[in-house]
Specification:
Number of strands: 9
Largest sheet: 6 strands, mixed
Radius of gyration: 19 Å
Oligomer: single chain
């Protein structure tokens, strides 16, 4: 069994161990069909509220159909940990303690003439509106994904919706994140193997352009990443996984250095902004959940 299938098998084994028996399959896929549940409800900790169904329906990638039935679905993981309508952070390890309203697939504009918006997995607003937290959630994408490309439009100052001097800061950061070789239609490949630096920089661009619409000057962007703590579940691939995880962490550290000029733009606008990388288990530990919910969420703790 190859590395991707070994990861998926570990995810499935833990899911079966921590959740009631469910049926698998029901997709049009010729491979990996067994890593999808037959019914979406079987992949969710709680029944999804109608308002959130509407949010996922308008989001990119038709999440409510086949994609969200995948055991490795980041969208399902996002909803499962944050839940319906409100979420309470019991301790300030990830965000200031308190109760937050929740919305999913939050869309913000990026470039002029670009119909593709930034799709942030979740937006959390503290009850007194003194803090807004955006979440970008990753499950197995960083392990099983493919090299990311940057469209040439992100290197064109005329396409930006922010002042030219500020746009130039983003362009220089994007330039530092991609390789020199030009691909189809002027696209460039990310220098990073695993950490999705291009997506995170696009999120920073979207958040920066939306500053004046926020209810507070306290903003944060959390990259919450699912990690395997006991790599032995991957058998012969345990060392490979540890090496890939080390690369992911090293790339995030390098990214935080490269985006420092962007963070200074936020500071100069009077924004108290934080950018953090948080393993999923640490993120979950900050959140109030019932015992029944914790038992189901244990599927993500390997």
């Amino acid at each position: 069994m190859e590395f991707p299938e070994t990861v998926l098998e570990a995810i499935k084994a833990r899911f079966v161990e921590t959740n009631a028996h469910v049926r698998f399959g029901g997709t049009d896929l010729t491979t990996r069909n067994e890593y999808y549940v037959m019914h979406l409800a079987d992949n969710l900790v709680d029944t999804m509220a109608e308002q959130h169904k509407a949010e996922y329906s308008q989001g990119r990638g038709v999440e409510l159909n086949e994609k969200m039935r995948a055991l490795r679905s980041s969208a399902a993981m996002t909803f499962n940990v944050l839940g319906n309508e409100t979420v309470r952070f019991a301790q300030p390890g990830c965000a200031p303690a308190g109760t937050y309203s929740v919305s999913y697939e939050y869309q913000l504009p990026l470039l002029a003439g670009n119909s593709n918006c930034a799709n942030l997995d979740a937006r959390l607003v503290l009850a007194d509106k003194t803090q807004v937290v955006y979440c970008e959630m990753k499950m197995a994408e960083w392990l099983l994904g493919w090299p990311k490309l940057l469209r040439a439009s992100y290197l064109d100052r005329e396409r930006y919706l922010i002042p030219a001097a500020h746009a130039q800061v983003f362009i220089e950061v994007f330039e530092s994140l991609v390789k020199n070789e030009v691909r189809t239609k002027g696209s460039r490949q990310s220098k990073y193997m695993h950490f999705d630096a291009l997506q995170m920089t696009k999120h920073l661009l979207a958040l920066y352009g939306n500053i004046d619409n926020e209810p507070t000057r306290n903003l944060s962007l959390i990259n919450c990443v699912w990690e395997i703590n006991d790599a032995s579940v991957l058998g012969k691939y345990a060392e490979k996984y540890r090496a890939l995880l080390a690369i992911e962490h090293e790339e995030f550290a390098d990214f935080t250095h490269r985006v420092r000029p962007i963070l200074e733009l936020f500071e100069n606008r009077g924004i108290n902004f934080s950018l953090t990388y948080t393993p999923f288990d640490q993120f979950l530990a900050c959140i109030d959940k019932t015992e029944a919910q914790k038992k189901k969420l244990a599927r993500y703790l390997l």
